[in-house]
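TICKET: design request
STATUS: open
ATTACHED STRUCTURE:
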């Protein structure tokens, strides 16, 4: 019997004294914990390592149960349960309970010990229970770290809506993926193999399967975006990406992830749609700006029609464009046509080609839009159905847009576009068309106003310019007038010639700044005042002085007027002349070169100055030409160079031209305007003294 306890030490069969001592030393000094319990579950022996684990001295544990020794009730219960299980016949027990012992380390963790229990048999039943404690602290820490990594990884996948999946080297899915089946509602049997492809949208499945087969065959990364049917029956966008796992040259498996990118895809679609809409809006804005500029250049109704036809083709894509004007007298809509550039536009009865569309737009003061024949029939249900059906059978048109032309809220006409194919008119395009109709209405109003002003001013100027120049023995007179633009026929240039009571002839050529009614009326006042003054004080300086006084009383400060006034004696050829800020007259001779009458011009009318008086004689066969600045000045030619060019052109005139004032004026105009765009009125007045045949003595 041992002297330390009443329980005999365990017998070690077939061991000699030396072997027994060696075993005892190993158990006592080994880095693993060891203990022996009797059948009553009391400690009989333990080594130094286990005592240190418990934090006790070995003698203090002998003969006592774990409940008496261990401070933790959980540890004591785990010990006693394992002892009881071994005594009940178990060969070995690993309770799974970890014994935490020792002082905490830097991370706050104590060392972890794994406990295993074995029966200690003699010659029959178990005489007790042996326990071994192994330090698994490093393994435990690794397991904890791995567990935390897995938790973080799974949390990351959850946060990013990713579903991890695997496939074997041949591309067949062998492992279940509950997350994928939760999304799609597939069973495990439906998912495995290539079944996961069945969840793809029918329109996407073949493409995804081909991409997967290509990736498997090439051992290349698989990356596809496709729609996936969910349990609810709707479809969401997923991106599936898988990479091959290689070991040397061998493909082991595929690891991939399905990512829900529906929100991102919708955002990209929305961004793309917004970008497209902004681009289309910018394009419509540019088209509207160009259309506005084109319409602003249209002066007449015919030009407005022509401009709208071109705009309909380029900016709207219409196959035909029509413009109608509302006649206030008969309250009917009349079509406006551009008959090969006709200035006022031809008018024909509306509605023959397209029944009721333009009338509807004018009557309702809102757009009429029919994107296809069915919509046309529906919109024309109140019209003559037989007429509408006949029209649809006979026409190739398949879409129609009619817009009212409004001025101050009142209809003045209608604009119509037709298309050879059906067309869906969006709300944005409708806004564009309405804005275009607004610009067209403004242009039409301007054109009608221009034509009315043009007719009035043209009649006024026709009444101001002399119908015929006076016929005076011994002189020949000729005039020329051409408007500065194609359509504006009324400007500030004017000329006049009339006989005086003393037998002399008065002539004048002037230029009132500006065009239109204002310039024409200003010219009328100056002309009438000059004639009145010429009959009472015919000398040129006196006439211009009187015009200055009249000008101060009647004309505005911005009304600049220049003129050349002369009085010619047909018998002597003497010319008395005064120049109020105008260009110098041109003298063309038969025998010498042409020259300019270089007299310093006075100031324009209304600018106080002492009027000069110039006297010179015109020899028989010579011609004096008065002219406006439109003959010598334009955007590409200054006045000084124009005057030099005028002398050069005149010097090249043939004798027969010099002797005929009508031919002379035509020659000067053609020579001076050749190669230049006329942008101002051109007015000339010529006085020619022919060579008189000698009378017999």
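STATUS: resolved
RESOLUTION: sequence designed for all positions
ATTACHED SEQUENCE:
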């Amino acid at each position: 019997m041992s002297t330390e306890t009443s329980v005999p030490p365990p017998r070690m069969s077939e061991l000699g004294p030396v072997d027994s001592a060696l075993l005892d030393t190993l158990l006592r000094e080994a880095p693993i914990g060891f203990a022996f319990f009797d059948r009553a579950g009391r400690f009989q022996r333990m080594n130094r390592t286990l005592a240190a684990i418990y934090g006790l001295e070995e003698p203090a544990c002998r003969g006592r149960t774990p409940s008496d020794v261990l401070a933790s009730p959980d540890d004591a219960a785990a010990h006693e349960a394992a002892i009881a299980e071994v005594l009940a016949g178990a060969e070995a027990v690993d309770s799974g309970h970890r014994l935490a012992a020792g002082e905490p380390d830097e991370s706050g963790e104590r060392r972890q010990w794994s406990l295993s229990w074995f029966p200690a048999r003699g010659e029959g039943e178990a005489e007790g229970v042996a326990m071994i404690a192994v330090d698994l602290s490093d393994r435990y820490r690794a397991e904890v770290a791995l567990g935390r990594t897995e938790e973080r990884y799974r949390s990351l996948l959850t946060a990013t809506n990713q579903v991890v999946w695997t496939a074997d080297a041949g591309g067949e899915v062998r492992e279940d993926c509950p997350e994928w089946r939760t999304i799609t509602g597939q069973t495990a049997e439906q998912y495995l193999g290539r079944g996961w492809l069945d969840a793809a949208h029918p329109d996407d499945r073949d493409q995804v399967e081909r991409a997967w087969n290509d990736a498997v065959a090439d051992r290349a990364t698989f990356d596809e975006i496709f729609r996936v049917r969910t349990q609810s029956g709707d479809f969401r966008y997923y991106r599936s990406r898988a990479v091959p796992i290689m070991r040397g040259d061998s493909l082991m498996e595929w690891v991939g992830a399905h990512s829900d990118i529906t929100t991102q895809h919708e955002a990209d679609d929305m961004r793309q749609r917004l970008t497209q809409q902004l681009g289309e809006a910018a394009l419509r804005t540019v088209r509207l700006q160009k259309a506005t500029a084109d319409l602003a250049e249209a002066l007449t109704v015919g030009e407005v029609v022509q401009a709208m036809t071109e705009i309909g083709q380029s900016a709207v894509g219409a196959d035909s464009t029509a413009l109608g004007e509302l006649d206030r007298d008969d309250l009917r809509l009349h079509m406006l046509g551009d008959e090969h550039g006709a200035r006022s536009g031809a008018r024909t009865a509306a509605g023959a080609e397209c029944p009721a569309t333009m009338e509807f737009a004018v009557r309702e003061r809102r757009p009429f839009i029919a994107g296809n024949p069915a919509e046309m029939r529906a919109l024309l249900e109140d019209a003559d159905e037989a007429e509408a059906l006949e029209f649809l059978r006979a026409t190739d048109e398949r879409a129609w847009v009619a817009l009212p032309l409004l001025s101050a809220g009142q209809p003045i006409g209608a604009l119509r576009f037709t298309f050879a194919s059906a067309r869906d008119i969006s709300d944005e395009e409708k806004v564009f068309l309405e804005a275009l109709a607004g610009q067209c209405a403004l242009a039409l109003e301007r054109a009608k106003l221009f034509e009315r002003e043009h007719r009035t001013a043209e009649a006024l100027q026709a009444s101001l310019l002399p119908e015929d120049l006076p016929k005076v023995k011994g002189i020949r007179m000729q005039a020329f007038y051409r408007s500065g633009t194609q359509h504006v026929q009324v400007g500030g240039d004017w000329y006049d010639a009339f006989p005086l009571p003393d037998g002399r002839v008065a002539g004048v050529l002037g230029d009132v700044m500006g065009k239109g009614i204002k310039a024409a009326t200003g010219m009328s006042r100056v002309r009438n005042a000059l004639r009145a003054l010429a009959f009472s004080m015919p000398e040129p300086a006196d006439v211009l002085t009187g015009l200055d006084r009249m000008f101060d009383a009647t004309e505005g400060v911005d009304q600049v007027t220049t003129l050349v006034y002369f009085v010619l004696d047909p018998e002597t050829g003497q010319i008395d002349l005064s120049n109020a800020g105008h260009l110098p007259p041109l003298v063309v001779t038969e025998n010498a070169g042409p020259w300019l009458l270089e007299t310093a011009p006075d100031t324009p009318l209304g600018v106080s100055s002492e009027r000069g008086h110039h006297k010179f004689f015109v020899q028989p066969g010579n011609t004096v030409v008065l002219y406006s600045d439109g003959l010598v000045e334009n955007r590409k030619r200054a006045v000084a160079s124009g005057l030099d060019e005028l002398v050069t052109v005149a010097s090249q005139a043939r004798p027969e031209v010099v002797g005929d004032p009508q031919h002379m004026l035509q020659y000067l105009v053609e020579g001076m305007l050749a190669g230049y765009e006329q942008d101002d009125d051109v007015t000339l007045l010529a006085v020619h003294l022919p060579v008189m045949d000698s009378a017999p003595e």
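CLOSING REMARK: Residues 335 and 348 are 5 Å apart (CA to CA). Residues 1-13, 338-352, 693-697 have pLDDT under 50 and may be disordered.
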